[in-house]
Amino acid sequence: MQVSNLLVEGVNLMLLGMGSVFIFLTVLVLAMSGVAHLVKTLFKDDTHEKMSVQLTAPQTNAEGDEIIAVISAAIKRYRAK
């Protein structure tokens, strides 16, 4: 065989391999997206919404002052070492 024929066969094999991997990954992403959508619709739960509301609730001023005091004491103790 000539070198040019080997190069053409190599490029064909490369394109076939890369194309099959691309198609496989595309099908995998679509399948995972479909399953995620299916799980979201079947197992609708409000706990996530409740948790996000609890996490974003503003802290009271007393809690904030206490946290600042604790952090300040920890910094002073660390620097004293």
Automatic annotation (TrEMBL):
<protein>
    <recommendedName>
        <fullName>Probable oxaloacetate decarboxylase gamma chain</fullName>
        <ecNumber>7.2.4.2</ecNumber>
    </recommendedName>
</protein>
<keyword id="KW-1278">Translocase</keyword>
<keyword id="KW-0472">Membrane</keyword>
<dbReference type="Pfam" id="PF04277">
    <property type="entry name" value="OAD_gamma"/>
</dbReference>
<dbReference type="GO" id="GO:0015451">
    <property type="term" value="F:decarboxylation-driven active transmembrane transporter activity"/>
</dbReference>
<dbReference type="InterPro" id="IPR005899">
    <property type="entry name" value="Na_pump_deCOase"/>
</dbReference>
<dbReference type="GO" id="GO:0008948">
    <property type="term" value="F:oxaloacetate decarboxylase activity"/>
</dbReference>
<keyword id="KW-0406">Ion transport</keyword>
<keyword id="KW-0739">Sodium transport</keyword>
<keyword id="KW-1003">Cell membrane</keyword>
<dbReference type="GO" id="GO:0015081">
    <property type="term" value="F:sodium ion transmembrane transporter activity"/>
</dbReference>
<dbReference type="InterPro" id="IPR023424">
    <property type="entry name" value="OadG"/>
</dbReference>
<keyword id="KW-1133">Transmembrane helix</keyword>
<feature type="transmembrane region" description="Helical">
    <location>
        <begin position="20"/>
        <end position="43"/>
    </location>
</feature>
<dbReference type="GO" id="GO:0036376">
    <property type="term" value="P:sodium ion export across plasma membrane"/>
</dbReference>
<comment type="function">
    <text>Catalyzes the decarboxylation of oxaloacetate coupled to Na(+) translocation.</text>
</comment>
<comment type="subunit">
    <text>Heterotrimer of an alpha, a beta and a gamma subunit.</text>
</comment>
<dbReference type="GO" id="GO:0005886">
    <property type="term" value="C:plasma membrane"/>
</dbReference>
<keyword id="KW-0813">Transport</keyword>
<keyword id="KW-0915">Sodium</keyword>
<keyword id="KW-0812">Transmembrane</keyword>
<comment type="similarity">
    <text>Belongs to the OadG family.</text>
</comment>
